[in-house]
């Protein structure tokens, strides 16, 4: 038969990420016919498992439909499993033999691994498993990319000593979301936004991430990182760069990433008065999980001061943005699930209407749930009335693009790795700048252990966060 065109290797195939995200994603791409023909999959992990066992672990997350039984058989026929240690070269030589058995192929290695084995695995891949001749090798890595600027740079140097930057795909799955990818088109594909996208017209920008659940037994992992490293330094800051960057000369990955790095370089670390940290406590009136605070999670160390909520105002010190607050806000165990960007415009100059009647324009980009873009704007109250009221120009995807299936972020990103597109992946200098911005605050928290402000599970977070927004020229105009 045919040799392989591509072999996709999942390192850490027995783990949580593999079963919940990677195998399901590969299956969805496969069944939709999006993968190159003759792609094979090899799982690798320490446990002495069979492919049958890996399959049983992943199936609950794969959402296989009734009429897809045959297809799913076909998918698993393309899968094999190799067990081996992460620090034993001979085991990687065996892995390489398993890859070679499929024929001459391009190779993708997905590192679904804990940070402790990351260095030895990448070293062994480099020494034993690289593609030969005209075939390429690509390495996909996931956070955590270190814990601060130094540890991250150390990891980057290690990777740079083994692989070329074109071979490295650092995943930030927020870059795979529809509305995050849409930011470039919104800004640079519309005449109307360019001229007003600056400090003369924009009062403030709020980028929010809210989750209605707590650590859910993941407290041990979470406590080491906290919400700043888990969500803000990566997902929210990435969105900020796409909102704030200058127009790149083209849509090439390098051109885009150059502009993203420039914006990050213009952002100083936040000052103390622009930071609010919170930690959720149980809500005795709540139901089920809501009764449990962060410190009630048995996997969380006693007396931990790790923030589960943070609001931070950043400033981009360049000609376009000087003085405009970019407020990043994220938290677990809040009142709703939501990720969105709010760009609030300044007041109308020379307002002729009744005092307080005219509200600010606000452009909202809702990332999830239910993707939407809407512009809050004033309109005359319809009918005989002479009053004004706030209304919206509304592009809600669910109604405008009925029936269009939104791919999962991982589907897009893994397909991008096959295609060799690095647009939606984080470059090493970008990562380093992101850490530079947050490292002073993170070190302050690690060393001084300031007490986070308690907020109730299921609430909007600490009131101090809303006050920070108000101080930074964000006017409350409804639910946000
Ligand atoms: C992950 C964080 O990166 O993003 C999680 O580690 C968080 O803590 C998740 O829950 C949120 O992703 P999404 O796509 O569900 O918004």
UniProtKB/TrEMBL annotation:
Domain Glucose-6-phosphate dehydrogenase C-terminal: 184-476
Compartments in which it is found: Cytoplasm, Cytosol
Enzyme class: oxidoreductase
EC numbers on record: 1.1.1.49
Claim: Oxidoreductase is one of the keywords in the record: yes
Catalytic activity: D-glucose 6-phosphate + NADP(+) = 6-phospho-D-glucono-1,5-lactone + NADPH + H(+)
Keyword field contains NADP: yes
InterPro entries assigned: G6P_DH, G6P_DH_AS, G6P_DH_C, G6P_DH_NAD-bd, NAD(P)-bd_dom_sf
GO cellular component: cytosol
A GO BP annotation: pentose-phosphate shunt, oxidative branch
Pfam families in UniProt: G6PD_C, G6PD_N
Keywords, sorted A to Z: Carbohydrate metabolism, Cytoplasm, Glucose metabolism, NADP, Oxidoreductase
Superkingdom of this protein's organism: Eukaryota
Pathway info: Carbohydrate degradation; pentose phosphate pathway; D-ribulose 5-phosphate from D-glucose 6-phosphate (oxidative stage): step 1/3
Glucose-6-phosphate dehydrogenase NAD-binding domain segment(s): 9-182
Location (main, coarse): cytoplasm
One GO MF term: glucose-6-phosphate dehydrogenase activity
PANTHER family attached to this UniProt entry: GLUCOSE-6-PHOSPHATE 1-DEHYDROGENASE (PTHR23429:SF0), GLUCOSE-6-PHOSPHATE 1-DEHYDROGENASE G6PD (PTHR23429)
Record's function text: Catalyzes the rate-limiting step of the oxidative pentose-phosphate pathway, which represents a route for the dissimilation of carbohydrates besides glycolysis.
NCBIfam families: zwf
Family: Belongs to the glucose-6-phosphate dehydrogenase family.
Protein name, as recorded: Glucose-6-phosphate 1-dehydrogenase
Organism in which the protein naturally occurs: Plakobranchus ocellatus
């Amino acid at each position: 038969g045919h040799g392989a065109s591509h072999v996709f290797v999942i390192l850490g195939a027995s783990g949580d990420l593999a079963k919940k995200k990677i195998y399901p994603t590969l299956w969805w791409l496969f069944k939709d016919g999006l993968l190159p023909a003759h792609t094979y999959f090899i799982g690798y992990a320490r446990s002495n498992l069979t492919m049958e066992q890996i399959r049983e672990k992943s199936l609950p997350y794969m959402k296989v439909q009734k009429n897809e039984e045959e297809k799913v058989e076909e998918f698993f026929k393309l899968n094999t499993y190799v067990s081996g240690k992460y620090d034993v070269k001979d085991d990687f030589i065996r892995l390489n033999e398993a890859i070679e058995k499929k024929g001459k192929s391009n190779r993708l290695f997905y590192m679904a691994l804990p940070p402790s084995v990351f260095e030895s695995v990448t070293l062994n891949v480099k020494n034993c498993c690289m593609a030969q001749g005209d075939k390429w090798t690509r390495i996909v890595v996931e956070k955590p990319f270190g814990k601060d600027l130094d540890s991250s740079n150390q990891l980057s140097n290690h990777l740079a000593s083994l692989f070329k930057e074109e071979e490295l795909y650092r995943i930030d799955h927020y870059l795979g979301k529809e509305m995050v990818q849409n930011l470039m088109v919104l800004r640079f594909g519309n005449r109307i936004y360019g001229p007003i996208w600056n400090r003369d017209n924009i009062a403030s920008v709020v980028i929010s991430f809210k989750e209605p659940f707590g650590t859910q037994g993941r407290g041990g992992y979470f406590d080491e990182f906290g919400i700043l490293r888990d969500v803000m330094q990566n997902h929210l800051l990435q969105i900020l760069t796409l909102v704030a960057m200058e127009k790149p000369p083209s849509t090439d990955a390098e051109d885009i990433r150059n502009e993203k790095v420039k914006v990050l370089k213009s952002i100083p670390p936040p000052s103390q008065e622009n930071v609010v940290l919170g930690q959720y406590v149980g809500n005795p009136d709540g139901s089920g999980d809501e009764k449990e605070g962060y410190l009630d999670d048995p996997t969380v160390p006693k007396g931990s001061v790790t923030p589960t909520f943070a609001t931070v105002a950043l400033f981009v010190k360049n000609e376009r943005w000087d003085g405009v607050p970019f407020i990043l806000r994220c938290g677990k165990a809040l009142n709703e699930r939501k990720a969105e960007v709010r760009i609030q415009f300044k007041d109308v100059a020379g307002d002729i209407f009744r005092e307080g009647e005219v509200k600010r324009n606000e452009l909202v980009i809702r990332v999830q749930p239910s993707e939407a873009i809407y512009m809050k704007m004033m309109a005359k109250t319809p009918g005989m009335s002479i009053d004004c009221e706030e209304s919206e120009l509304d592009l809600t995807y669910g109604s405008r693009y009925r029936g269009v299936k939104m791919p999962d972020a991982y589907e897009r990103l893994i397909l991008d790795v096959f295609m060799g597109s690095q647009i939606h992946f984080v470059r090493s200098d970008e990562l380093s700048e992101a850490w530079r911005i947050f490292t002073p605050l993170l070190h302050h928290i690690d060393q001084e252990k300031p007490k986070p402000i308690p907020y109730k599970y299921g609430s909007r977070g600490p009131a101090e966060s809303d006050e920070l927004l108000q101080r930074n020229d964000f006017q409350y105009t409804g639910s946000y």
